[in-house]
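Dissemination and training. As part of the outreach component of the grant, students in the summer workshop were shown how a complex can be specified as a set of sequence lines and then modelled as a single object. The example used during the hands-on session is reproduced here so that future cohorts can follow it. Participants entered these lines:
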Amino acid sequence: MKSVGKLKLYWADFWRYRYLLWNLVSRDFKLKYRRSVLGVVWSVLNPLLMCLVYWAVFTSLPGFGSNIPNFPVYLMIGQLLFTFFSESTSAGMGSVISASALLKKVYIPKYIFPMEKCCFALVNCVFSFIALVLVMLVTGSPLHATVILAVYPLLTLFVFCFGIAMALSAMAVFFRDIMHLWSVFTTALMYFSAIFYDPAMMGSVGSFSMQTIIGLNPLYWYITAFRTAVLYGRLLSTNMVLVCGGCALVSVLIGTLIFKKTQDKFVLHI
Amino acid sequence: MEPIIKVDNVSMCFNLSTEKHESLKEYFLALVQGRLHYDEFYALRDISLDIMPGDFYGLVGLNGSGKSTLLKTIAGVYKPSAGCVTVRGSIAPLIELGAGFDMDLTARENIYLNGTVLGYSPKYIDSKFDEIVDFSELQDFLDVPLKNYSSGMVARIAFAIATITKPDILIADEILSVGDFLFQQKCEQRMKELMSGGTTVILVSHSIEQVERMCNKVAWLSHGHLKMNGDTTAVCEAYKQAQRGEA
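and obtained this result:
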């Protein structure tokens, strides 16, 4: 009974500050494109150009891409979701530190800041889906009814990122090193996310096949589930549903725990 | 009558780490070498204070006596190391004006951003927008980025936003020292208006004359201890006496 009341209190607190969340996202959005001539168009153009680069590089390498049907769309999905992950976690990591001016002077629920960065990254990601649609149109990829199922990996990925962003933002307050370490880690992770190759065609390291190792990477599952729905037009397998949902849940639980344990000390360190 | 703010045996302790360990390597090196001890510093020690609804409470004391720390503890920015603060009602904090401003945004955008920082809804801000602009007298500069404003102009906007609502408690940290004297008068006027509407005000000021003029209760802090609190005349007399003695 008591915990229900507590949960209600948290919810009321969040609900009161929902407009702040909205305004912070719109501030980030305005500032990102202020003074650029093309403005929001960059949200579409940027992933398009990035994928063009990847596509040019990997199709010119023998053995890459040729065995994957509709390689541009395959590449694009991996690239977009991975960008979402790396943007939200790295921006979320610095969010508490950069909000120090606010946190020192007014009471605001502190998790608003990592959450805001994740929302902002999600908005950007959704905008860049326009680029994905363009690529699908140009390559003549059919539109499946299962597209709607792609919402599931996207939303669970959002929760997954939010959990990580909370944990990282709390840790970054005490140890700034994390920020440098994380950028190295995400780069490494990128190569294990099967963005521009099919894991089935990779060799093995020692007694482990690459496919097993990549299967341990939650991002691979989110990307694969998204591809399954959008590119292949198939239903999500039970494994996909479980792994996507499970990773999100674990991440957000751990993130909340770390954040809650340390948040009272934030103001003393930022 | 029950107090609207109950400060109960509050202590606030800061770890003044002699060196700040901002990287893992440094931290572990210090840990291994046994250098990891902190100097504790009590900014507040066993403060108990009851503030009644409708009070105009002044906080006086020298620099570093813990006034701002006490305000921030009441506002919920700091969590006290010991003791507890009970607040019954909404708080509008005016601690260093313009904390929620983004200098790259225009005044109009900032009014909405800062309003939501204080927990107002956009609809509510819409309805009060003209009032804010009138009060701050900055009609001609609404679409100018805030970085091009003078500090006085920023303070006007900030004060106007923070006081549009009728908060139960208004916390003001030396805000009246900014702006020209006309604007200061306007701010005092607005605070008096809020008071007559039942708002409790806590004011930190270095101007003892201002405290004497506006407050009905005063608390005197010295080195984190509550030295004296009660009616304005008695506390202010003692405070002035002590200052004369030290000077």
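The radius of gyration of chain A is 20 Å. Students were then asked to discuss how this feature might be tested experimentally.
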